[in-house]
Design a protein that fits this description.
Elements (H helix, E strand, L loop, with lengths): L1 H25 L4 H22 L3 H10 L1 H22 L5 H8 L1 H8 L5 E4 L2 E4 L4 H24 L2 H29 L5 H26 L5 H28 L4 H9 L4 H13 L6 H33 L4
Antiparallel strand pairs: 1-2
Helix pairs in contact: 1-5, 1-10, 1-11, 1-12, 2-4, 2-9, 2-10, 4-8, 4-9, 5-12, 6-7, 6-8, 6-11, 7-11, 7-13, 11-13
InterPro entries: EmrE (IPR032713)
Keywords: Membrane, Transmembrane, Transmembrane helix
Pfam family, one: EmrE
C-alpha cells in the first residue's frame, strides 16, 4: 500500500505537466520547446542530487557497460513518452490528454510477456496478470466515456492527432521504465537511474531544441518559466517518486500493475487545476461518469494489491517443509 500512496503522490506532481503544457499551447508556445526544456531543466537538479549522494561514478560505470541499452530504452521511456504528450496538448485540454494517457495502465499489463524473471534459479517469461488486466479494463471503460463528449464536438483530424500520440506515449513509458529496471538489475538507485535516462536521452532533446530554434525561434520567458516548473515538479519529483514505487514491486506483475494504475488519479488533479487556474469548462456528465469509473478501477487495484500483500506475508511466514 505504501507503493500505491507513492504512486498517487507522484500523480499529483505529474498533473502539473498536463496543466502547464496546455497553458503553454494556449499562449502560443511550441510543443518542441515544452518537451525539450523540461529535460534540460531536470538535468542540473538530478546531477546535484546524485553527486551529493556520491553515486555518479557508479552510474557512469553502469552506462559505459551497456551504452546501447541505455540509449535505446531511455529514448523509448523518455522521448517517445514526453514528446507525443506535448504534441497532443496542442489539440485538446489537459484533462482530455490526461484521460487518454490512462491507457498506459492497460499497456503496462499487456507488456508483461516481454520480460523474463528468474524463479528458483530458472528463467521464465512473465505472464499477463489476468485479474490486474480485468481491473485495468474497468479503468479503460472510464477513459472511453471521457472521450465521448470530445469526439462529438472536435473535428476527426484534431481528435486523431490528440489521441494517437498519447497512445504511443502510453506504451513507451512503461516499456522504457521496465526495461531500464531490467538493465540496471537493482544495482543503482532511482535517482541514478532517472539521471542516467535523462543523460542518455539528451541527444534527442538537443536535436529537438535546434529544430525548434530554426523553425519557431526562441521560447518566451513565460514558456521557459513554466517548463522549469514542469521539470522540477513532474520531471524530478514525480518521476523519482513513481520510479521508487515501481522499483519496490518490479518482481511482481500484479503489484506493478497496481502502482502503474495510480496514474489514473492524475486526471482528477488535472481537472481541478485547469478549472481553477485556466478557466477550462467543467467536464460534462458523461465525462464525469467516466471519471467515476476510473476511480472505482483504482480502488479495485488498491484492494487487490492489499490482498496480494497479505497472501505474500502469510506465505513467507509459513514454516518450511
Amino acid at each position: 500500500m505504501k507503493e500505491i500512496a507513492l504512486g498517487i503522490l507522484a500523480s499529483l506532481f505529474f498533473a502539473v505537466t498536463f496543466i502547464l503544457n496546455h497553458a503553454m499551447e494556449m499562449q502560443g508556445g511550441s510543443w518542441l520547446w515544452s518537451a525539450s526544456l523540461r529535460y534540460f531543466f531536470m538535468l542540473p537538479f538530478l546531477l546535484v542530487i546524485v553527486f551529493y549522494r556520491k553515486g555518479f561514478t557508479q552510474l557512469s560505470s553502469e552506462m559505459k557497460a551497456q551504452p546501447v541499452a541505455w540509449m535505446l530504452w531511455s529514448f523509448i521511456g523518455f522521448v517517445l513518452f514526453y514528446a507525443p504528450l506535448t504534441f497532443a496538448a496542442a489539440f485538446g485540454p489537459g484533462w482530455l490528454v490526461s484521460g487518454t494517457w490512462q491507457l498506459t495502465i492497460v499497456a503496462g499489463v499487456l507488456l508483461a510477456p516481454l520480460f523474463i524473471s528468474v524463479v528458483a534459479g530458472k528463467t521464465e517469461r512473465q505472464k499477463i496478470p489476468l485479474i490486474s488486466l480485468l481491473i485495468s479494463c474497468v479503468i479503460l471503460v472510464g477513459i472511453l466515456l471521457i472521450q465521448i463528449p470530445q469526439a462529438q464536438s472536435v473535428p476527426f483530424k484534431s481528435l486523431l492527432l490528440g489521441i494517437l500520440p498519447v497512445i504511443i506515449a502510453a506504451f513507451a513509458y512503461p516499456l522504457g521504465n521496465r526495461k531500464m529496471m531490467e538493465v540496471c538489475g537493482g544495482r543503482i538507485d532511482t535517482y541514478q537511474r532517472v539521471l542516467g535516462m535523462t543523460i542518455a536521452s539528451m541527444p534527442a532533446w538537443i536535436i529537438m531544441a535546434i529544430y525548434a530554434m530554426t523553425t519557431v525561434g526562441l521560447p518566451s520567458i513565460s514558456q521557459v518559466t513554466q517548463s522549469l516548473l514542469v521539470g522540477i515538479s513532474s520531471g524530478v519529483i514525480a518521476t523519482t517518486l513513481f520510479f521508487i514505487a515501481t522499483d519496490r514491486v518490479r518482481d511482481h506483475q500484479g503489484k506493478l500493475a497496481a502502482v502503474e494504475a495510480t496514474q489514473s488519479t492524475e486526471i482528477l488533479f488535472v481537472i481541478i487545476g485547469e478549472v481553477l487556474l485556466l478557466g477550462i469548462a467543467f467536464p460534462d456528465p458523461i465525462a464525469l461518469a467516466g471519471l467515476g469509473v476510473i476511480i472505482v478501477g483504482m480502488m479495485l487495484h488498491s484492494y487487490y494489491t492489499m490482498i496480494l500483500g497479505k497472501k505474500s506475508a502469510v506465505h513467507s511466514s509459513s514454516p518450511t517443509q
